[in-house]
């Protein structure tokens, strides 16, 4: 039917043009035309797939011109069912927009790359091109800048196009694509070692990448299990809203966001920890197998479930270090001590990262330590450190780093403090002093804005340059000292950063920008520690050492949304006799969400708390 109607139309148009010389090359003085579009042999394509496109351009009567080229995908079924009445094409997608610069007269071959949109229905498409879409150049023949019913050579359907076949999308299908941990290894305390630790802990943190196809979004539930002795055992997720651990993580997918980010914070309970430890062998490398399963909570659940499960693994270690150590491994400077009562070391570390490094990711590394030397030259050392690193588009940046190290010994040797702060890879200040007694308070704050990375994205057909960074405040308020007692107390650091972005395009008739409300990190790390030496006290009549350490943290990481948008004044496409052609103007809006997420991690907890005294 389609070829028959094209032949009729071609005959009619040739009759009308029989006495007209407009199409004769003898009369044409100027013309711009695309003569061929091809992709090479392709299999059925997946959405969001990049495809190479090859096309040929003829320039006549123009020298070194700049000209725009736009590419569209038109569903072939719509053209097969068209008749002689003009009708708008519904299933048409703009997939490319570029500018050719300084093109000389003659025939030229070019290539570009387009991305198959996520919004296609799927099936058979024609990839067509339009050159000089805004009629910036006056030509003798304008009708061959695109497929047209008014250009005789195109009347039988022989306009330039390439056939593309796209997989038909599912009507209702959730998918788990990938799982990434925010740590290099899982390091656990041995069972029943809860001295000084908090019930709120984070064993495994990271994120899942997921996708949805269809138009019936609803709620889903995700569970996580670990493999122990050949059996899958359930774990628990931290729920920031309920401030409790729960057996499953509920997640609502976002319409149009085909790269869903689902953050998780997993804890292993005591019974499960004991089972894992029983099969642990420190002499050989071991990994913990983790399985994530997504379940559709809708009444009419999805029928495709084999892509709802993803398995991964992470290296596994148990921390079995003793609470005693030699002072040489910890002292800031070389000091001589006699060996008597065991030295005491109390320490705790927290090192996790959150987010997708190719978009936005933030890592936190916290540590606090109290070291006591009870005999010889009695003394102690308090140290604390906090580091915040961020990735923007795979670029690593140290946002903030601060360290404090204070020590005191009866002899007066190695008694003093040192502190250093780094902001955006630059040392903000250094402070160091060693004396027989001291007290020092710091209270500093900064408000900073910094561009940290640049990248390029394509939003619909529009290429866009983006720069991203952080804005916010940071600082600390800490008092340290020694006068018969070594102490440190206060907020070792506080950071509050939000991500921002700026974007630009180099195409006419296009507007584009950033959509951003994103909290990157809000973190307060507090440290309170003391160590003293007393001949007598109200609770102890014998000479003794008393000490205490408490590390608290309040952390909220990555919440909000960050994306790009573009609006183009494009072409409205119509059809007649199976031929697509421009029939007006139409504004198109495109959105690319890089992040839409609730808080990936939101928790206030005590990393470590311990106090005691030892008789000398």
Automatic annotation (TrEMBL):
Signal peptide range in chain numbering: 1-23
Q: What is this protein called?
A: CARDB domain-containing protein
Q: Which UniProt keywords apply?
A: Signal
């Amino acid at each position: 039917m389609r070829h028959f109607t094209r032949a009729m139309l071609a005959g009619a148009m040739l009759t009308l043009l029989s006495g007209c010389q407009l199409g004769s090359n003898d009369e044409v003085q100027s013309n711009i035309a695309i003569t061929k579009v091809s992709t090479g042999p392709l299999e059925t394509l997946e959405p969001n797939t990049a495809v190479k496109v090859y096309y040929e351009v003829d320039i006549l009567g123009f020298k070194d011109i700049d000209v725009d080229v736009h590419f569209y995908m038109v569903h072939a079924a719509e053209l097969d069912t068209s008749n002689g009445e003009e009708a708008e094409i519904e299933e048409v997608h703009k997939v490319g927009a570029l500018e050719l610069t300084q093109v000389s007269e003659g025939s030229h071959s070019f290539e570009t790359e387009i991305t198959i949109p996520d919004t296609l229905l799927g099936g058979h498409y024609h990839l067509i091109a339009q050159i000089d879409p805004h009629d910036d150049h006056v030509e003798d023949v304008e009708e061959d800048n695109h497929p047209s019913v008014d250009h005789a050579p195109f009347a039988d359907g022989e306009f330039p196009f390439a056939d593309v076949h796209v997989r038909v999308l599912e009507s209702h299908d959730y998918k788990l694509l990938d799982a990434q941990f925010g740590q290099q290894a899982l390091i656990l305390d041995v069972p029943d070692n809860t001295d000084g630790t908090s019930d709120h802990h984070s064993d495994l943190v990271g994120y899942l990448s997921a996708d949805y196809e269809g138009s019936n979004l609803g709620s889903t539930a995700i569970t996580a299990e670990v493999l122990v002795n050949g059996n899958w055992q359930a774990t628990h997720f931290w729920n920031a809203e309920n401030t409790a651990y729960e057996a499953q993580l509920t997640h609502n997918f976002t319409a149009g966001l085909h790269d869903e980010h689902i953050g998780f914070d997993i804890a292993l309970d005591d019974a499960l920890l004991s089972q894992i430890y029983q099969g642990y062998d420190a002499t050989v490398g071991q990994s913990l197998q983790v399985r994530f399963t997504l379940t559709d909570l809708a009444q009419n659940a999805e029928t495709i479930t084999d892509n709802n499960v993803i398995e991964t693994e992470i290296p596994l270690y148990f921390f079995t270090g003793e609470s005693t150590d030699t002072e040489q491994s910890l002292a800031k400077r070389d000091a001589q001590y006699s060996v008597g009562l065991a030295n005491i070391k109390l320490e705790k570390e927290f090192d996790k990262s959150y987010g997708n490094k190719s978009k936005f990711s933030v890592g936190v590394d916290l540590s606090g330590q109290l070291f006591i030397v009870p005999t010889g030259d009695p003394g102690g050392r308090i140290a604390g450190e906090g580091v915040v690193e961020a990735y923007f588009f795979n670029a690593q940046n140290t946002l903030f780093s601060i360290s404090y190290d204070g020590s005191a010994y009866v002899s007066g040797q190695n008694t003093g403090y040192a502190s250093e702060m780094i902001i955006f890879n630059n040392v903000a200040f250094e402070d160091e002093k060693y004396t027989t007694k001291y007290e020092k308070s710091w209270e500093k704050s900064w408000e900073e804005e910094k561009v940290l990375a640049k990248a390029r994205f394509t939003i619909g057909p529009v290429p866009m340059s983006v720069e991203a960074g952080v804005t916010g405040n940071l600082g600390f308020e800490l008092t340290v000292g020694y006068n018969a007692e070594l102490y440190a107390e206060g907020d070792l650091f506080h950071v509050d950063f939000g991500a921002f972005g700026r974007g630009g395009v180099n195409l006419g008739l296009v507007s584009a920008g950033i959509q951003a409300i994103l909290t990157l990190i809000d973190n307060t790390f507090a440290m309170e520690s003391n160590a003293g030496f007393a001949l007598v006290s109200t609770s102890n009549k014998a000479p003794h050492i008393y000490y205490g350490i408490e590390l608290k943290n309040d952390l909220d990481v990555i919440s909000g949304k960050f994306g790009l948008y573009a609006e183009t004044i494009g072409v409205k496409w119509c059809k007649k006799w199976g031929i697509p052609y421009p029939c007006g103007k139409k504004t198109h809006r495109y959105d690319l969400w890089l992040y839409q997420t609730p808080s990936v991690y939101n928790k206030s907890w005590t990393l470590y708390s311990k106090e005691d005294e030892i008789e000398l």
